[in-house]
Structures are given as structure tokens and as C-alpha cells.
Amino acid sequence: MKSNVIPPSAFRPRAGAADWMRQFQDWLCHRLETADGGGSRFRHEEWTHPGGGGGLARALQHGAVLEKGSVIFSEVWDEMSEPLVKQLQLNDRSYFATGITAGLHPRSPMVPISHLSLRYFEARTGEAWFAGSLDLTPVYVDVAQARWFHAQIQAVCNRHDAGYYARFKAEADEHFYLPHRGETRGVGGLHFPQLRVGPDGLFEELLAFVQDVGEVYGRTYCTLMGQNAHLAYSEPEKRWQQVRRARCAEFTLATGHPGRFEPATGYPEGMVLGLPPRAEWHYNHAPTPGSPEAQTQQWLRRGVDWLAPNNPAVGP
User: Fold this and answer.
1) Each residue's pLDDT tens digit, 228-270
2) Which element (helix H / strand E) includes 278?
3) Among candidates 114, 193, 119, 190, which has minimal Cα distance to 158?
4) Which residues form the domain of 91?
5) HSE of 74, CA atoms in CB hemisphere, 13 A
6) What angle do CA 220, 296, 142 make, to 5 degrees?
């Protein structure tokens, strides 16, 4: 433990962010357990951060629908490295951060993989911002469900700012992109790297937006679990799932990195919990032309307008 630990009280009062993140972890885990329906429960593990604070990791394994799922809460305070201070253009190394990270890997290749990250960061100087991302990574792209998913998150964005969806959807297309593969991780979602308290809105307004993003994530994903969990599949679909899981792992290991809002939490199992339980890498793998796998591959590109009027898909 460092001798110059910075207690939360050293910062401007932002307890509402941490309190909600903690409550949201409870809510999301309960929703996922109910949607899983197999009686499996999230296991709990408390952890501490070397500088101060810590968090609660919750993991579900071998569920009826979810083969592996994690929802991690963090509330930490510490001092940033000088390079990070310069990157963030701050005048003080002391920070407070709280957040939620979720990674969901279902058994069935017909149920999408999905990820969520919500964060609040505050420097001792009072500079503060919210950030987050959510995305849907289907093993097989169902265009109707992708359109429905984007319609749900667009509706949430429009309740707060009419420009949010187009802006944060474009950010997600860039963020969830594997440049060495020339493909997106899935059908995208939202990514907002820095919504600043003050210039971009009042604290209460930005927190309300983040709360709505969390709610729509839990609601839409649990809906898709219920719709797809009982769809039939065979060994070829399961093999394709392992390939798509490998792409998720590649994103985390090769291109994933702490964002501008997210200094390291000091929890070593955090990245491991978000990785798929099993994945396969095959040399020079390419799906058979005209196959369902090849059709999915064609959708994994930036700039798809899932809500375009000429898109023939209809929502579930």
C-alpha cells in the first residue's frame, strides 16, 4: 500500500457514480442469471487496488446459456504515470475512477457474444468525464436482430442528444475494428471515449445517459438470449463460433488497451475474465463462398447503416 493513498473524500463529491455502478452490477447479474435460466449464479471475488480502493468481480461459468460471463465493478484512486498525465493533458497525477466491465460468451453459436464498459474518471483538479462502450458480436449475423439492436440504442441516445447515436456509432465502428484482419469485431454499437462534465453536460445529465446505456444493454442482450438460446445448431456452427471467439480475443490482446478514461485497475484477472473460455486459430482460414459463414463475414465492415430505410430487415 502506498503511503500517500488518496482517499475518495479528497475529490469533489461524485459518490453517485460509484453507487450507481455498484447497483448496476447487482441489477445486470440478476437479469443475466434469470435469462440464463439454468440455476447458475455469479461467484463473487473482492479485490484491492495497490493505490487505494478495489472492487468486486463476479463470474458465471457453465450456465445453461452462458458458458462464461463476467461483470466487474471497480472503484479506485491512485496516481497516474507522467506519460498518462501528459496524454490526458492534466495538471495533477491524482485520480479517482469507477466503472463496470462485462464480457458475455454463450454456449450456443446462435446467441451473440457481447461486451460492455462504463467508466467515470475524475482528477483531483476537478476535471471529470464519463466514457463507455457496448457492442454486439454475433457468430452469425442476423440482420433483423442487428437492426433491432441498433434501433434500441438509437432510441436511448435520442432521449439525451439527437446527435449521440450517429457520433457514437461511428466511434464504435472505428474502435471495434481489427486492422490486421480488415474487419469489425461484430455489428458495432456505441463508443464514447470522453463525455466531459461541464463542457458536454452537467454531471447529472451525463450520469443519466450512462444509466440508460447500461439499462438498454442488459435489456437487449437478455432479450436476444431468450430468442436465440434454443435455436438448433451443429458441429460446423460450433467450429465457426470458436473462430469468431478467437477474433474477440485478438481484439482484446492485440488492439485492446486502457482508454483515455481508464487507468489500470490493478486487478490481474480482469482481462482473463473477459476472454472466451475456448477459441481456435486456424492458419489462413476463409469461409466457403456463399456459406452462412461467408455471409456473416461480409457484414463485418465499418460504416454499415443498420437503420437505413432501404434495409429489408425488420426487427424481432
Assistant:
1) 999 999 999 999 999 999 888 888 887 654 444 445 455 666 6
2) none
3) 190
4) 8-299
5) 31
6) 35
| Count: domains in the chain | 1
Residue (of 52, 41, 45) closest to 18 by Cα position: 52
Cell 446505456 belongs to residue: 213
Residues designated catalytic:
115
Residue 258 in grid coordinates: 486502457
All residues at 6 or more sequence positions from 157 whose CB lies less than 8 Å from its CB, including other chains: 164, 165, 168, 190
Q: How far apart are CA 98 and CA 81, in angstroms?
A: 18
What is the DSSP annotation of 96-128? EEEEEEEEEEESSTTSPEEEEEEEEEEETTS-E
Residue 314 counted as domain residue: no
Query: Would you say residue 220 has pLDDT above 90?
Result: yes
193/190 Cα distance (integer angstroms): 10
Q: What are the grid coordinates assigned to 29, written together?
A: 447479474
Question: In this structure, is residue 81 part of a structural domain?
Answer: yes
The answer to the question of residue 241 being in a domain is yes
Contact between 185 and 179 under an 8 Å Cβ cutoff? The reply is no
pTM: 0.89
Find the CATH number of the domain harbouring 159.
Answer: 3.40.1500.10
Strands 43-48 and 189-196 turn out to be unpaired
Do the domain assignments include residue 311? no
